[in-house]
Design brief:
The protein has one helix at residues 164-170, and strands at 10-18, 29-37, 47-49, 60-64, 76-81, 89-98, 111-119, 122-127, 137-145, 151-160. It is mainly β. It has a five-stranded antiparallel β-sheet, with no helix packed on it. Strand 9 and strand 10 form a beta hairpin. The longest helix has 7 residues, at 164-170.
C-alpha cells in the first residue's frame, strides 16, 4: 500500500507562548527551517528560512511572527509547501530558536510554550518543550523525501544548548544514537 501514499503535502508549524509579566523583557521564539540537497542531506543547508526571509521559490514562508508572545492562540506560524519543493531537495529540518537578548534564555524561562505541527486539520505532533527545558533552541520536525518522491514526517523535539548561529549551522547534522 505504500506505493499509493502521496506523503506529506503542505504543513503548518505553529508556536505559542505567554508574554512575560510587566517589567520583564519579552521572550522571543522564532521558527527556522533549513533545506538540504539530495546530494548532501546532512551537510550545510542549501538555504534557511526564518523571521527575515522566505524560500527562493516561495514554498516555505513565515505567516506570522511574534516578538513577545502577545496574541491569541499561536503567535508564530510557518508554512512548508513540500509538495511544491523542487526535487533536488531531499530533506527539511525545522527548529525553534529563543532569541538571546538581553540575556541568555532557555525553554524553562519561557511561559507556557507550545508547538503544533499539522497538515490541513490533521495534527501530526504537539509538544510543550518539557523534555528540553535547559535548551536555548530545539529541532522540532524533520521531513524526508523517499525514493518515490513522497515526503515523510519524523517527529521529535531535540534540544540544543548554545548560540542561535551555531544552532542554525548544525541543526541538520546527523544525530548520534
Amino acid at each position: 500500500m505504500s506505493g499509493l501514499s502521496k506523503g506529506i503535502g503542505k504543513v503548518e508549524i505553529a508556536l505559542r507562548w505567554d508574554p512575560n509579566p510587566a517589567g520583564q523583557p519579552p521572550a522571543d521564539l522564532d521558527i527556522v527551517a533549513a533545506t538540504y540537497l539530495a546530494s548532501d542531506p546532512h551537510g550545510d543547508p542549501a538555504y534557511m528560512v526564518h523571521f527575515d526571509s522566505r524560500s527562493p521559490d516561495g514554498t516555505i514562508y513565515l505567516n506570522r511572527d511574534s516578538k513577545d508572545g502577545k496574541g491569541f492562540g499561536y503567535d508564530e506560524v510557518m508554512t512548508l509547501e513540500l509538495n511544491r519543493l523542487d526535487s533536488r531537495y531531499a530533506r527539511v529540518v525545522v527548529g525553534v530558536v529563543i532569541q538571546q537578548r538581553p540575556a541568555e534564555r532557555t525553554f524553562v524561562s519561557v511561559l507556557n510554550p507550545g508547538l503544533r505541527i499539522r497538515e490541513g486539520y490533521t495534527v501530526l505532533a504537539e509538544d510543550d518543550f518539557g523534555g528540553v527545558l535547559g535548551a536555548t533552541a530545539a529541532t522540532v520536525a524533520e521531513f524526508v523525501r523517499d525514493e518515490s518522491g513522497a515526503w515523510n514526517f519524523h517527529a521529535g523535539v531535540h534540544g540544543f544548548e548554545g548560540d542561535p548561529t551555531t544552532f542554525t549551522r548544525t541543526m541538520g547534522a546527523a544525530r548520534r544514537s
